[in-house]
Amino acid sequence: MDLRQLKYFVKIVEQRSMSRASVELNVAQSALSLQISGLETRLHQKLLIRRSTGVTPTEAGKTLYKHAVAILRQVERATQDVERSASEVSGPASLGLPVVVQDLLAIDLLVAARTRLPQVRLHLAEGMSYLLKEMVLQGRLDMTVTYQFEPSPGIVEQPLFNEMIYLVSPADSGVEPRERGMSIAEVARLPLFLSSRQTGMRRIVQAGLAAHGLAIEPLAEVDSLRTLVDAVETGNAHTILPASALQKQLKSLTDRPLVINALDISRNVVLCTSEHLPLGAAATAVYDVLDNLIREALEDRRWVGIRPVPDAPST
């Protein structure tokens, strides 16, 4: 198995067609077939299923595809790092940001990267935290911001900050602001719109309720942050959101018809990298810039409801 075979295999899987891959690679279709046959012989596995409708990978082929993408990306990164080792840090770097933390970090990071790393091409990917983490494992992203919930094999987590979780209520709902906040158990009887079950936020809420022997069935599941806030502002339901999603509201409560109460739960936000794929020079530089940005924001108390990650209790 060599890099050329992996490159051909990845292109065929992505194009879902031997003929289209042949055109993209500028390689004769017969030569592609020969290389794939050699790869299958080497691995003792059938990798592709060829039908009139196109080419699809077998289960073994899907496994190889994940590894091949990561290997080719790492080889490209290593080549770029060696070529640029004597000059300013440059090249591509990619970071995943869940939707709820984009407003908190994206603009400041883009500005800082442009100022401090002018030769780095930063790609910010938006999505669900669990999907972004999977992209890191596959080598499709260098790193991602996500939420600490349970360990993931192959992932290294660097703590960034801890954020409070809030109940967000309509102004005319009868819920009053409390200086000491509320317990998660108190919200179980309220009409709620929540994010879907696979999101990190929902899992935190469910875990908090389960600790009290409670469970809830929301009126609706909504993944759009804007829709959740709009639903509360128009008096349709309550919702539960983290501090990172509520900075504008927490800093200007008088401008919005909302009542926001801190709950007795919080979550740690972490930066995830692959345990097996080392970061290139550009990604390492972005990692450092992001870490410094967050440290500065925490020291300046720039954010409401966001604080350093508590130290683990000593044993």
- Reading the helices and strands in chain order gives HHHEEHEHEHEEEHEHEHEHE
SSE class: alpha/beta
Number of helices: 10
Please give the share of residues in helix. 40-55%
Number of domains: 3
- By CATH, the superfamily of the largest domain comes out as Periplasmic binding protein-like II
Q: Catalogue the unreliable spans.
A: none
Provide the CATH architecture of the largest domain: 3-Layer(aba) Sandwich
Main beta sheet: 7 strands, mixed
The radius of gyration computed from the alpha-carbon positions, rounded to a whole number of angstroms, is 24 Å
Write down how many β-strands occur, each being a DSSP E stretch of 2 or more residues: 11
Indicate the overall shape: elongated
Strand portion = 15-25%
User: Mean of the pLDDT scores?
Assistant: 88
Say what the CATH topology of the largest domain is: D-Maltodextrin-Binding Protein, domain 2
Name of the CATH first level of the largest domain: Alpha Beta
Cα(first) to Cα(last) distance is 48 Å
Brief characterization of the structure:
By secondary structure, the chain is of the alpha/beta class. It folds into three domains: about 5-80, Winged helix-like DNA-binding domain superfamily/Winged helix DNA-binding domain (Arc Repressor Mutant, subunit A), CATH 1.10.10.10; about 90-160 and about 270-305, D-Maltodextrin-Binding Protein, domain 2; about 160-270, Periplasmic binding protein-like II (D-Maltodextrin-Binding Protein, domain 2, 3-Layer(aba) Sandwich). The chain contains ten helices and eleven strands.
